[in-house]
Amino acid sequence: MKHPRLALALPLATALLLTSCATPASAGAGGTAPDAPAGASFGSTLPGAPAGDVIGQGTVIDTGSGAELCLGAVAESYPPQCSGIPIAGWSWDGLDGAESAGDTTWGSYAVQGGYDGKTLTLTQPPILLALYDPMLREDPTDGRAGKATDDDVDAVQDTAPDLLGEAYLGSYPEGGWVWLDVVWDDGTLQQAADDDFGTGVVVVRSALTEVG
Length: 212
Hints:
Elements: E1 31-32, E2 45-46, E3 54-62, E4 67-70, E5 85-88, E6 99-101, E7 104-115, E8 120-122, E9 127-128, H1 150-164, E10 168-174, E11 177-182, H2 188-197, E12 202-206, E13 209-210
């Protein structure tokens, strides 16, 4: 069996650390994040669950306890290692692109379903990522340079993992912005980041995107 090189699940997040593997936030259905500091918008309120289907692209892995969709980094071991969103209704039977080693089965797919803040429940058959043609996302910056300073970058990267917990996937600076990747955002986290760090500093990107 060949040993595939598995890259990051989120296409644009090329600078995520391998230590940023994540599962969804426990408060993903909306409400107050645990241990949020008083007076801080960022991290004190998490987005509600999406009303309709969402789609996510990444590595689906099953170590014997159920399939998970990894949206963050994937360790390039063999078999690969990561943790992610539990997927309800998943079956490997007849699915192209799956590989197995020991008790682990995995593959790269676009997965569509309903998301309640903890679990992604399939509503459509998964699509092999090699065959998936996603819609091009609009540039949230409109090509403008950001205003982030080195201090801003440090502040976001020092606080976001603790404030967002398992909703945090990773962050990196580019083009004067701090690009912050999360499991799911409906604009709540973007607004909070603007409130706390100022506009033109942080771009929050949701790995799960709404369908339709």
